[in-house]
Amino acid sequence: MTDLKVAVVGSGVIGLTTAIELQKSIRNANVSILSDGFNEDTTSWVAAGIFRPGGEFKGENKEITQKWIDDSWYYWKNIQDSRYGAEAGVTELSGYTFSNRSENAVRNPYIEKLVPIYRPATETELTSLCPQKWKFGSYYSTLLIENSIYLPWATEKFKADGGTVIHQRVDSLPSLGEKYDIVVNCAGLGSQTLCNDDELVPVRGQVIKVDAPWLKMFFYADSSTYIIPGFKSVTLGGCRELGSYDLNPDKYVSLGIRERCENLVPSLKGAREIRTLVGLRPYRKSVRVEKETKICMCGKKVKIVHHYGHGGYGVTAAPGTSLHAVRLVKEMWAGNSKL
Ligand SMILES: Cc1cc2nc3c(=O)[nH]c(=O)nc-3n(C[C@H](O)[C@H](O)[C@H](O)COP(=O)(O)OP(=O)(O)OC[C@H]3O[C@@H](n4cnc5c(N)ncnc54)[C@H](O)[C@@H]3O)c2cc1C
Ligand SMILES: *[C@@H]1O[C@H](CO)[C@@H](O)[C@H](O)[C@H]1NC(C)=O
Ligand SMILES: *[C@@H]1O[C@H](CO)[C@@H](O)[C@H](O)[C@H]1NC(C)=O
Fold first, then answer.
1. Quick count: other Cβ atoms within 10 Å of Cβ 112?
2. Which residues define the annotated binding site for D-dopa?
3. Among 133, 149, 140, which Cα is nearest to 109's?
4. Ligand 1 pocket: which of 44, 225, 226 to mutate (most atoms <8 Å of CB)?
5. Where are the domains of the chain?
6. Is 18 exposed, middle or buried (0-12, 13-18, 19+ CB in 10 A)?
7. pLDDT band for position 2 (50/70/90)?
8. What's the pLDDT tens digit per position in 284-320?
9. CATH topology for 4-334?
10. Does the beta carbon of 336 sit less than 6 angstroms from any atom of ligand 3?
């Protein structure tokens, strides 16, 4: 017998992680995912998937943000340590961040105490690891979550645990109240229209996935340059274009990415291109994890939990913000006489 009927809107890394956590932590919850795009039709699919929150990643306050990041780290780490780590697309990855700008550009207060290794690059690393010379650098060890593996894995796990997946575009969140007790909105950039949220803006990113299995470390450098080895390819990036909705690859952006990455790591000159991908990061000054009650056309009060706006760090932070969203679902449900 099932008690609570939950609709999760969206099947990116945020929706899927939320849906799985709802199943895990609410007994007798019947969870359905409603989404108009899956796998390669999501922003999540485009991500390089490195665990690396940027300074602009923020929740309501510092404590909440750090808790999201800590929870996320241990969640991914647990999967990586388990016997199904590789099957789920989670692995460890180490590498360098270099900069000529400032010491701050190569630091990461969010994760320096969390990850197993985070240290300044040595003089030798700064001047002779790559042909270019750098003034500042850090070496650290972190995790990589390959969404082209994790999303299908999570979908199968969700279904195996009794979840329902429905291919459907949602035009109104309150209208779902007719069939479901609680709605969790994980629609990413789709929340712009679903919630009339003008604080949510796209930050366009373009990456080139190349075949370079000889590369085993990640590299970050100035001008949004990155080289990130995954399970199936190496991701070369990137760019950050605020307010652009263009999903077509731009050939001049690609030329720039190639040049910057090849200058950083010249062996990439031999790397065959697999695909160029574009994604619109759902950026919001503060990630929204929040309860709301709305009245639907049918007159019923509809309980909604919003969970979107992760910008460039949704893979990193999905577990932490999902655990938070699930707590809000429980709070809303506890407000019912049923519990
Ligand atoms: C180039 C690039 C590189 C990145 N690299 C990293 C990285 O290394 N590490 C990291 O942590 N993050 C990275 N990110 C960021 C990360 O991809 C996003 O933060 C994350 O994918 C957001 O997940 P999401 O589930 O909210 O959105 P999405 O993946 O976009 O999912 C939204 C879902 O909602 C559905 N939807 C939307 N509207 C509706 C509607 N009206 N009705 C029904 N369904 C709807 C969509 O179909 C989709 O399934 C990168 C992003 C880009 C673009
Ligand atoms: C869960 O909900 C879905 C969709 O509303 C329904 O098809 C399914 O039968 C329900 N499952 C259970 C076990 O009640
Ligand atoms: C960084 O600065 C140093 C010293 O000014 C310079 O020699 C070097 O070429 C710069 N590196 C890059 C990648 O621009």
1. 12
2. 226, 281, 312
3. 140
4. 44
5. 4-334
6. buried
7. low
8. 999 999 999 999 888 899 999 999 999 999 999 999 9
9. Rossmann fold (3.40.50)
10. no
